[in-house]
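Each field is set out underneath.
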Amino acid sequence: MPRISIPLTGLNKDFVVQLSYSMAFVSEEVLGHEIDLAGNRLVVDLTSDASRTEVEAKIKQMIERYREGEFGFRSKVYFEQHADIIQNDTWPELLARKWVTSVGDGHVILRGPAARLADVIDQRIQSIFAREFKAEKEIYPATIKCETLDRIHHFTSFPEHVDFVAHLKSDVVALQQFSSRCREIGWSSALHEGQMAEHDYAISPSCCYHCYEGMEGWELSAPGRCITMTVPCHRFESRNQQSMSRLRAFTQRDVVWVGHPKYVLDSRHRADALIVEWAKDWGLDCTYETANDMFFTDDYAVKASFQRQQEAKKELRLTIPQESKTISVFSSNFHSLTFGKAFNIKVEGRTAASACVGWGFERWVYAIFSQFGFDSARWPGGLRRDFTL
């Protein structure tokens, strides 16, 4: 197998995490990679020697993109807690017990105790967060207009994530040909060639986008409004789609505030306290810390540094012992006036600010089984109490 080795300098945690994540998107000629911290190098396996020069140039470009450079990354841990966690093969065990079934790369079905645990998490969100902020429930479609994603600059920040929705042309001949060929030889993607209509929708990559476009042109009563919703979201993650740490299709609940900046920021601050109380009550092995989005753009350093400096993004990260890493299960985001401007949302004549907090159900489920095992009778007291109610 062809392999290349590229020297790395100035390694730090954030750089390593971002570079490792982005290597899944650098080229389809890359089969896998390893960051050798001891040797300060990146080792990459390729499909063929013919692609070596081209891929190496792309990787070096990626490395320069994700260096800290002059901007710097402010890291702050607001809360940290350690617990008595176990070592177990969580992913194979979940599959063996049939509590989880994989139905494609990054797609899973939850059942039994795994599905029950997801329900417990959702019920807690509603009983604590939605009730605390008097959140109004809204129901959204799973798909979203590409025009909307363009207006909020999603394509320029996260192009790698987008799963477009496609359909066959509204043409009787094209439809009949496709149907006949499927009957004769079975489906294959080759049958789509020349038969697809233009893409005008994508599967929603985030939970709250519909919230803002649904209020376009609204004048809100002071101080604003709070909304909650659950949406099946999609983000293509390429080779990063492993176990349940990072899925292509996942379920997310958000609580969103739109209104006066003070109302939005005060609410978000209260949510920070509530998620820490939750972590303490369930005895989770975790940190609550500053974070940044995995921007896949040339101006990554500017955007990511801004988020860190302004504490615009925070994450509750739970330890996954068997994978020697942590994963984000809760995200708190302050958008300032971004969505208020994009959709002309006002409060008392001024552009509305917004913020959201979100939970990824599948990640919560995976992290809890990873930390505490499959016998709920041996789980921490608060978690055991809620699961057995």
Remarks:
- The longest helix spans residues 261-282.
